[in-house]
């Protein structure tokens, strides 16, 4: 009976696959003229397509000259608009050309789905007029984004607290850093808000409120060793970042030695974002295989989605001394019926000096046997060699890092796991 059912399911699957291919072919035939037109024109020079017509309700204009000059072009599949139906996240691959530097690959982001971008317009209108529709440009000048005018010297915590994850618990030190490093102005380097033009100030505040990812990349740049993709610039509602490499998921079935190296780097990222010389703790709230990528040349792991990150200022926490601020905080493992889910309290992340959240997030969602993604289980370190299984330490450390059985067990397990992965990696290099 089971065999009959499996055969029937196989036939249905093959039939469905065939019908999908036929339907796609029909769509291609019906859109032949549009296909040729798509390859002939560069839509990245179209003001409406990139959202430049919505400025200052946009993310910036620093790369507009490059877009308008045709220096940024979609790669082949990105030119086919009917494929946008499958591109829910609005992330595109493109080529950027400079006369002296040649051509390089970049990633373009709209920083939201079409629905999310439409909701941004509605929220701006509601803030301005109380109604979901309005003249967007005029509406921007009636929001709090415009009311913070040139007389205001500093962007202060009480104004923007809670606007997004980046500023869930902002300190003045963090906001000064955000303004000083804002890349969408020619006058960068000053932490005084009044030094920005009105349009630049509105763009900064809108980005901070609706998707602060560009500001994270600018405030904690890769050039200074932070594990993020490099921010390049924006035009309208299209942001350009450096192409890092294939997503981490592509390495799920890579050779064991490669996966060990990637796991070690992931734990190093967790450590760096938790403890660094700047006393800013950057907590990853969205951890999945899609949010990391690996460099093709150096094999370096980089965070490529930085929208959902809380930045807690440890110096401010030590200064204000909220209740239990010096008590180590352990994240609790909770079973979930969804992929890549995490349990956390934003307020606690903002009020403790010592927190194990990043170790917990990396171990649970990426490395351990509890990690689930795209229908798989077992995590990046699945199916270890027999000698590693026999040794038992790796599985024990991963389990303790994910579901600690001892008080403060995750802190110790994370430390030992980093050391053990380093040993495994060195051993692999020696045996080559």
From TrEMBL:
It is found in: Secreted. Residues 206-404 form the FAM69 protein-kinase domain. GO terms for cellular component: extracellular region. Pfam families: PIP49_C (PF12260). Keywords: Secreted, Signal. Its main location: secreted. Belongs to the DIPK family. This is Deleted in autism protein 1 homolog.
């Amino acid at each position: 009976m089971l065999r009959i059912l499996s055969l029937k399911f196989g036939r249905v699957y093959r039939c469905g696959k065939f019908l999908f291919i036929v339907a796609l072919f029909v769509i291609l035939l019906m859109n032949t003229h549009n296909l040729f037109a798509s390859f002939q024109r560069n839509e990245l020079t179209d003001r409406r397509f990139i959202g430049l017509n919505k400025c200052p309700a946009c993310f910036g204009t620093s790369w507009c000259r490059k877009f308008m000059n045709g220096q940024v072009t979609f790669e082949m599949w990105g030119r086919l608009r009917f494929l946008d139906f499958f591109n829910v996240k609005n992330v595109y691959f493109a080529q950027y050309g400079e006369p002296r530097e040649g051509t390089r690959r970049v990633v373009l982001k709209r920083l939201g789905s079409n629905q999310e971008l439409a909701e941004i317009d509605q929220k701006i209108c509601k803030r301005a007029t109380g109604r979901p529709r309005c003249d967007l440009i005029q509406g921007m000048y009636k929001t709090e984004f415009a009311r913070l005018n040139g007389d205001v010297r500093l962007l202060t915590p009480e104004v923007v607290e809670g606007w997004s994850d980046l500023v869930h618990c902002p300190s003045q030190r963090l906001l000064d850093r955000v303004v000083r490093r804002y890349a969408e102005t020619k006058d960068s380097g000053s932490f005084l808000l009044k030094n920005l033009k009105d349009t630049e100030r509105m763009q900064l505040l809108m980005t901070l409120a609706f998707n602060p990812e560009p500001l994270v990349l600018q405030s904690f740049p890769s050039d200074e060793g932070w594990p993020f993709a490099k921010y390049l610039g924006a035009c309208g509602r299209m942001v350009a970042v450096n192409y890092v490499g294939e997503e981490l998921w592509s390495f799920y079935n890579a050779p064991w030695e490669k996966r060990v190296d990637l796991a070690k780097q992931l734990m190093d990222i967790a450590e760096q974002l938790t403890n660094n010389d700047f006393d800013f703790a950057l907590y990853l709230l969205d951890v999945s295989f899609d949010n990391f990528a690996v460099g093709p040349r150096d094999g370096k792991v980089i965070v490529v989605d930085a929208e959902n990150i809380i930045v807690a200022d440890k110096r401010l926490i030590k200064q204000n001394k909220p209740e239990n601020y010096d008590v180590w905080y352990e994240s609790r493992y909770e079973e979930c019926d969804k992929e890549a889910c995490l349990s956390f309290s934003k307020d606690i992340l903002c009020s403790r000096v010592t927190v194990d959240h990043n170790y917990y997030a990396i171990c649970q969602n990426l490395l351990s046997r509890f990690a689930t993604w795209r229908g798989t289980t077992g995590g990046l370190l699945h199916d270890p060699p027999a000698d590693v299984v026999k040794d038992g330490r790796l599985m024990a450390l991963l389990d303790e890092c994910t579901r600690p059985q001892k008080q403060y067990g995750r802190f110790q397990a994370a430390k030992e796991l980093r050391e053990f992965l380093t040993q495994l990696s060195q051993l692999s290099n020696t045996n080559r």
